[in-house]
Write a structure and sequence with these properties.
Layout (H helix, E strand, L loop, with lengths): L1 H15 L5 H7 L7 H18 L9 H20 L4 H14 L2 H12 L5 H30 L1 H22 L12 H14 L1 H21 L3 H5 L7 H6 L6 H14 L3 H19 L6 H29 L4 H59 L2
Helix pairs in contact: 1-6, 1-7, 1-8, 3-5, 3-16, 4-5, 4-6, 4-8, 6-7, 6-16, 7-8, 7-13, 7-15, 9-10, 9-16, 10-15, 10-16, 13-15, 14-15, 14-16
Length: about 375
């Protein structure tokens, strides 16, 4: 579980490295403020494609071979990004990085499948803590490395780490036959869609993930712009350090897993979504106070990860034998929401500045709370 957690954190970090570097990448590759969100959106688009096309393979092929192959290819894509001579190569490499970073979800599904049912929430929470830690450290590490050695060092260093993890996992993970041998790949993909069509709980939790991560991405995809300019004019390191304010998300992941095992999933969801809405009040004051930003980031990350762990625990119980397909399908909602938040926040910032960004994030948060409030009774029995 520890190795899964570390590997998940390192893999998912690649999706978020660009966030504190957006202003620098925009200057280096001549991207205007309205286009900076494209950098994040392309990575998320690649991630969404990988969720649909690659994660279901965990129900069809040897997971050890699948995980290590994806990590090896991810290392190559990171190397291409770090050596990119122009915008076209960089953006293409980032899309491929997103595509292959879905190995994170293959590992989450594998961990859930290995866990006894009575402790599944705890195990998913532990592995998700690794994911969250990777997301948090991604921004901080990217900022520090960019200040010390330039933005290219971020991707080149990650390429080395990812290659090393591929070797370690190849040696550590047990080999296993396909969970569903003989199932054609096309049928496997169609069954992912049919699972969500058949089970209301999957659609409800997917909808929550879409709105949840649209709100999350609205903040983190645009934060570098107000912090890089007056009145703060912060360095890459300082901007990345604000990711550590979201360490509450790691706490929330472990706690939410335990609460789910106690049958408190609905209560956890409602309280967390309420906190998500409230978080945008201090976030609106970012230009006046960095303390307000830190408080808002803590509340937002705690809320997002508490609901995320709850979602993953509940959906896996619908069809444990189809865990990879269910988590892959669920994460498509996650990725689509993240992409919408990224491009939406860039457009909102270009049109109305930081007040426009906070209004957009608050709207996504309120919509998530409304969705939960109107479906919570259905979700008790919808399987």
């Amino acid at each position: 579980m520890l190795l899964f957690a570390v590997a998940c954190g390192c893999a998912v970090a690649n999706v978020y490295f660009a966030q504190p570097l957006l202003v620098t990448l925009g200057e280096r590759f001549s991207l205007g403020s309205g286009l900076l969100g494209v950098v994040v959106t392309l990575t998320q688009a690649g991630y969404a494609a990988g969720l649909l096309l690659l994660v279901p393979l965990g129900d069809l092929t040897d997971r050890r071979a699948l995980i290590t192959l994806q990590l090896g290819l991810l290392s190559a894509a990171l190397l291409a990004a770090g050596l990119a001579p122009g915008a076209a190569v960089l953006l293409t490499a980032l899309a491929v990085i997103g595509l292959l970073a879905v190995v994170t979800q293959t590992m989450v599904a594998a961990a859930a499948a290995l866990a006894p049912a009575a402790f599944r929430g705890r195990v998913v929470g532990a592995v998700t803590t690794g994911v969250i830690t990777g997301i948090l450290l991604a921004r901080t590490v990217a900022g520090v490395l960019a200040d010390l050695a330039g933005w290219r060092a971020v991707y080149l260093s990650s390429a080395l780490v990812t290659a090393a993890l591929a070797v370690l996992l190849r040696r550590a993970l047990p080999a296993g036959g396909p969970p569903q041998p003989g199932v054609p790949y096309r049928q496997l993909l169609r069954s992912t869609v049919s699972l969500f069509a058949r089970h209301p709980l999957l659609r409800i939790r997917g909808g929550l993930a879409f709105l949840l991560f649209a709100s999350f991405s609205t903040l983190w995809s645009s934060l570098a712009q107000p912090l890089s300019g007056p009145p703060w004019s912060l360095s890459h390191t300082a901007i990345g350090a604000f990711g550590l304010a979201g360490a509450a998300g790691a706490v929330a992941a472990g706690a939410a897993g335990r609460w789910n095992d106690r049958g408190l999933a609905q209560r956890t969801t409602g309280v967390a979504l309420g906190l998500l809405v409230v978080s945008w009040i201090p976030l609106a004051l970012t230009r006046q106070s960095l303390w307000a930003l830190a408080i808002g980031a803590v509340l937002l990350d705690f809320a997002v990860q508490a609901v995320h762990v709850t979602n993953q625990t509940l959906i896996h119980e619908v069809r444990p034998d189809a865990g990879s397909r269910i988590i892959g399908g669920y994460m498509v909602f996650y990725s689509a929401g993240s992409a919408l938040g990224a491009i939406g926040s860039s457009l909102a910032y270009a049109a109305a500045g930081w007040p426009g960004v906070t209004a957009l994030g608050a709207a996504f948060s309120c919509a998530a709370l409304l969705l939960w409030a109107t479906t919570r009774h259905t979700a008790h029995t919808a399987k």
